[in-house]
């Protein structure tokens, strides 16, 4: 391997996962992210916030500085800094540090909804964990294969919910909690998904009959996305097994986690 | 192509989807329908209604006139106007414009339940979107194939719900909210579909035991429609793949969205 | 066909479904049962009961006399009357008429829980509808094939619910609504089946954490019965298609509702 | 069979299931465990506890002594006593008797949370029933095969719930019941699993819109674990049937509960 510049080596460590150092960096990063999330979650509890506000303040700034350094180093060593800065993770990385600086520069802004929203956005950094999840590929591919059918399904649900919500708005009216069509659509979603909070509930007999119909509908169309995912997943898993061929005897049909050929025992190529 | 009369060309544009103009008309129609729905939904919110009642009134009449023109043109250019007028979409198209004229001719009727119901019925026009959803065919065919089993399933649910509702009516009685057998059947549906509003809840020990039984029943029979749909869908998808044969080498087993033969690379006939 | 005695002919009509008369009798019976159910359900509504009590009383006795005659004729023409009387349907048929006579012989007993329970038991006669449902066989066979797995599943749920209910009883205690272990098990069932009435709800943090765990558990083990039923149903449907062989060319693999051979077009034997 | 020492024979009876005596012992043990559970559950009901406290006290000590004897004998006859004592069932067996002795030695401790928790832990002994459930193997194997995918699924749910909970905490705030991020995550779990207690419910429009999104998300990702389990179970059942080969004609593809070859009728080897 040719000699690498510091910047290239930094790139390998921070963005890559092939080297030992790169893996250690990833693990350290994940732990730091999880810790900063934990602090954020715990500091949202009033009683703790009042008691340990000083500690939370220091931890907050500690994490902010760490993530700032990480962000700057990423910008520095990335071959195309702008591409990184404009990517999903680049924006999330920026958002993770921004709120602290904003509230430092403009005192009082930490109480604004938008700043507080930005602060919890940091939680999306957890998505970086995703690359550690090996089986996620097959699940994702099934979802992608099924996306046409899922879209049809959600369009159907959207139409049903609008129709049913509108009907109940007219039948029940504002006196029974169905104050507007959007509120009634909210009720229809709560009912068709079988969540059933019970905060808005039909009172008239006709409304109850329609609600019962909505529930049974929700109950049975629940079967449709399951059927879609299952059918795609079954096929995907089968295709998967047929894709891996033994390099020695070219037999296929191995389990996805098989390491050796089931016919001749030769080592199989790394799968997935 | 032979010269077409104006009426025939109108028919092509309004009912057909083959020509460019027909496609543009469809898209414009869908957007208009969605806008009119949006106005209907927003105008149902009291605070907006009070503030912008004039704008809503004008928009309402604008959409009514547009849809009236569309309805008349459809009647005019259709080869069999009565068939259109009596079809599902013909009735929906009529219902979409009727309420405005009724409330214009008979002032005050806009507050009648039936007129307001007719107004929200307009939302069914959204179903015209359906033809844009490509994957809906395979889903619909699965549902049709499974309709015998789904009927059995719903009959079973209907019987269970009647029996369980009747039992709880006798056990709990009107004092605990189970005021009549229909009300108890409503409770049974709320419970067996796992919606669980909590507006009617058993109070006695025997009632609670039966409720627990109902829940576990609902929990497990939920599996039946899912199983039915999944099994039909899997088969339908498999049949689908086997139906498409390469016109060159007659290989089958292509993915539903494949455009080229997986064996010889020849273009496949358009599928679905 | 040899000459049949009146009794044998009656048997054919009442118990059989092969003759035209037998089919008409079945349909008339089903309609009568549905009507008597409807009267029972409507008469449970207080306001109707008060207004039309006389009509309900007469209808009640009309149905009772009809069903009494049916029961006696069934006993008379059955080749083994005791076997019928002791069968499931025999007992249900008796129960359908008993309460009216009891409340006639012992006035006032119609208010007893047991007599009123017996009255609604009549609803089980609706199960006679079952034989009209053609697809019920395949569903039932799938359930029977899967019964071992379903038993395992329900035992697991029973153990989980007992353990979780006991834990929450100790953690939450009677002050938060978890008054006893049976009540807590009821809560656990309400939660694990995702019904979620909200009448008993954990208040402590530890209780809430355990409740969240219970929900996620319920959410994921819901997948198990579905998986079981789907897998059995898929197999059953496949076996089904392979069972029917064309009497002409002996090809198999026909759809369950196919009437003609897909290879040679010969009429297939009646299936299911 | 060679002569066995008393200890070896005891081991056969208590730990084994091959001999008649071993099977009788198992059945007697299961019945005793179920009885002791029943006493525990019933004694948690206040009114019974007050009335029959003496009987419950005696029964409690009776079971404690029985289980103590069982524990000691197990320790005595086990070839490796320490391995048993440290195994899952060894610890559960110890925990089943400990609380009674603790509350005897240190009066008053029976009211401590930890002692009462230990008492209900005894319920885990019910898991010994598991070995009587024949079909549990295939279910367990499917779950194990799918554990990678299930882990991915639960990680996704954990991330979603944290993100959605945090967003609603900021949007709704403590005044609407979303007192802290952990409380909001609890709400998100209640909603995404479609349990829907209704104890915490969004009040603002933005909150309701996000809640509706959460429900639809929960509704559709519910399909994923089902798809996973179903796909694994189908495959497992197929593999199962292919594993059993007739010793006579080596035909495969038998049903899992088949006792004779479907081709030549020879007895099949015991399966599962």
From TrEMBL, chains A, B, C, D:
Signal peptide (UniProt feature, chain positions): none
Gene3D superfamilies attached to this UniProt entry: 1.10.287.70, Voltage-gated potassium channels. Chain C
Residues spanning the membrane: 21-43, 55-76, 88-106, 150-171, 177-197, 209-231
Keyword set, alphabetical order: Ion channel, Ion transport, Membrane, Potassium, Potassium channel, Potassium transport, Transmembrane, Transmembrane helix, Transport, Voltage-gated channel
Limits of the Ion transport domain: 23-239
Membrane topology of the entry: Multi-pass membrane protein
GO annotation (BP), single: action potential
Coiled-coil segments: none
Localisation per UniProt entry: Membrane
InterPro entries per the UniProt record, alphabetical: Ion_trans_dom (IPR005821), VG_K_chnl (IPR028325), Volt_channel_dom_sf (IPR027359)
UniProt superkingdom: Bacteria
GO cellular component, one term: voltage-gated potassium channel complex
Gene Ontology MF terms in the entry: voltage-gated potassium channel activity
Name under which the protein is recorded: Potassium voltage-gated channel subfamily KQT
Organism: Photobacterium marinum
């Amino acid at each position: 391997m040719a000699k690498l510049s510091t910047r290239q080596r930094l790139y390998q460590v921070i963005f890559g996962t092939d080297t030992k150092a790169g893996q250690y960096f990833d693990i350290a990063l994940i732990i730091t992210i999880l810790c900063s999330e934990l602090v954020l979650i715990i500091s949202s509890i009033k009683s703790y916030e009042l008691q340990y506000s000083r500690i939370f303040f220091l931890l907050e700034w500690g994490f902010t500085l760490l993530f700032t350094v990480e962000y700057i180093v990423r910008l520095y060593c990335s071959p195309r800094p702008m591409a990184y800065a404009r990517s999903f993770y680049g924006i999330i990385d920026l958002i993770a540090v921004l709120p602290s600086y904003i509230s430092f520069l403009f005192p009082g802004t930490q109480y604004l909804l938008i700043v507080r929203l930005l602060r919890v956005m940091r939680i999306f950094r957890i998505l970086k964990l995703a690359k550690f999840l090996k089986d996620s590929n097959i699940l994702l591919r099934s979802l992608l294969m099924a996306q046409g059918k899922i879209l049809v399904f959600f369009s159907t649900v959207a139409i049903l919910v609008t129709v049913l919500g509108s009907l109940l708005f007219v039948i029940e009216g504002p006196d029974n909690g169905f104050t507007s069509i959007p509120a009634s659509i909210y009720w229809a979603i709560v009912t068709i998904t079988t969540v059933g909070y019970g905060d808005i509930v039909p009172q008239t007999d006709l409304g109850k009959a329609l609600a019962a119909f909505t529930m049974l509908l929700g109950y049975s169309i629940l079967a449709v996305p399951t059927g879609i995912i299952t059918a795609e997943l079954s096929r995907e898993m089968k295709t998967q097994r047929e894709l891996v061929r033994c390099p020695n005897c070219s037999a296929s049909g191995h389990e996805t986690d098989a390491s050796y050929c089931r016919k001749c025992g030769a080592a199989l190529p790394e799968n997935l």
